[in-house]
């Protein structure tokens, strides 16, 4: 109703754009290289290595989302 009162139109507004990536393209490539070097590293280990090499401070969740974009899934072992 507010949009109708303000603009006289009920068509959906365009998407706002979303949040930008926290890492640059070079940092994402470096993260992929770190995974190739040591593919059994935890997210925390990868985050610390990335921070040491680039001074980029990000969370484990960000690392996980970037790895998902790179189609790198985490290794799953069955419990015994």
Describe the structure.
Helix content is 51%, strand content 0%. It is mostly helical and 80 residues long. The protein has a domain at 22-72. α2 (25-37) packs across α3. It is elongated and about 60 Å long.
Which helices and strands occur, and which strands form pairs?
Blueprint: H1 2-7, H2 25-37, H3 43-54, H4 60-69
Helix pairs in contact: 2-3, 3-4
Give a brief outline of the structure.
The protein is mostly helical and 80 residues long. It is 51% helix and 0% strand.
Report the order of strands and helices.
HHHH
How many beta-strand runs?
0
Helix content: 40-55%
Over the alpha carbons, how many angstroms does the gyration radius reach?
19 Å
Please outline the major beta sheet.
none
Q: What is the end-to-end distance?
A: 58 Å
Name the overall outline: elongated
Mean pLDDT: 89
């Amino acid at each position: 109703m507010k949009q109708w009162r303000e603009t006289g139109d009920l068509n959906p507004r365009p998407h706002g754009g979303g949040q930008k990536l926290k890492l640059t393209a070079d940092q994402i490539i470096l993260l992929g290289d770190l995974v190739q070097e040591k593919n059994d590293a935890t997210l925390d280990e990868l985050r610390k290595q990335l921070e040491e090499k680039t001074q980029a401070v990000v969370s484990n969740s960000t690392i996980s989302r970037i790895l998902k974009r790179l189609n790198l899934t985490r290794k799953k072992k069955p419990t015994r």
